[in-house]
Amino acid sequence: QGSQKRSNSTPETPRPKRTLSSRSPYARFSPDSFSPSVTPSQKYAARSSRGEVVASFGSVAGLTWSGGGGRGCTPKLFGLPEENLTKSYKFMFQKALDVREALSWRIEELGDALKSRHHLEDFASVLLPAQEAVTVLGQIACDSNGKLNARSVVLEGDRERSSGGQVPLDLAELKEFSLFPGQIVALEGTNSSGRRMVASRLYEV
């Protein structure tokens, strides 16, 4: 028996790729065999159903409408004059001081709601050491750029009592909790060192 020569394949002389013959069983399952023969769609400008109603809901028979062309219509501002915009205003171009004032007002407003709903006494500062249980007010924040979890929860106190200071929270003593960044809460707990508060009870709006 003579030896069969094998064709060499090098980068200079690549081996030709195999082509599927008509007798090959793989030819009938090629992508070309499954591609349907479709006719090209018509251009949008050449459509024939322009203005045709293809679906309707409810009774539309006998409806008439007529307008006065905007005559006799005068816009009126509602609310207090100092709360209305009377000149152009750039959206999301608020000053940092204005944003801080709005957040502080929001904390104080929700703090009053928490105090009246849960019959709480005056809030304490989050930065002062407390051997006994105290009640503090603030908003939930995260100590990093990642997602909020049980180990990254920080309580940012209000400006009046805590000067906006932050303290890490230990939530191990809470049976259950559901928090999100920016949430206004009142917490009852101890802060023996002034650097970490161990929460024992959570008050929500």
Topology of this structure?
Layout (H helix, E strand, L loop, with lengths): L30 H4 L61 H23 L11 E13 L10 E5 L1 H4 L3 E5 L13 E8 L5 E7 L2
Parallel strand pairs: 3-5
Antiparallel strand pairs: 1-2, 1-4, 2-3, 4-5
Low-confidence stretches: none
| Whole-angstrom Rg | 36 Å
Instruction: Indicate the CATH architecture of the domain at 91-204.
Output: Beta Barrel
Helix content: 10-25%
How is the largest sheet built, in terms of strand order?
1-2-3-5-4
CATH topology of the domain at 91-204: OB fold (Dihydrolipoamide Acetyltransferase, E2P)
Order of helix and strand elements from N to C terminus? HHEEHEEE
Features:
single chain; 5 strands; nucleus; OB fold (Dihydrolipoamide Acetyltransferase, E2P); alpha+beta; 205 residues; DPOA2 polymerase; flat; OB_DPOA2; DNA_pol_alpha_bsu
Description:
- The protein is of the alpha+beta class and 205 residues long.
- The protein has a domain at 91-204: OB fold (Dihydrolipoamide Acetyltransferase, E2P), CATH 2.40.50.
- The chain has three helices and five strands; from the N terminus they run H-H-E-E-H-E-E-E.
- It has a five-stranded mixed beta barrel with strand order 1-2-3-5-4.
- A hairpin with a 5-residue loop joins strand 4 (184-191) and strand 5 (197-203).
- It is flat, with a radius of gyration of 36 Å.
- The mean pLDDT is 81.
- Residues 100-204 form the DNA polymerase alpha subunit B OB domain.
- Residues 1-12, 32-41 have a biased composition (Polar residues).
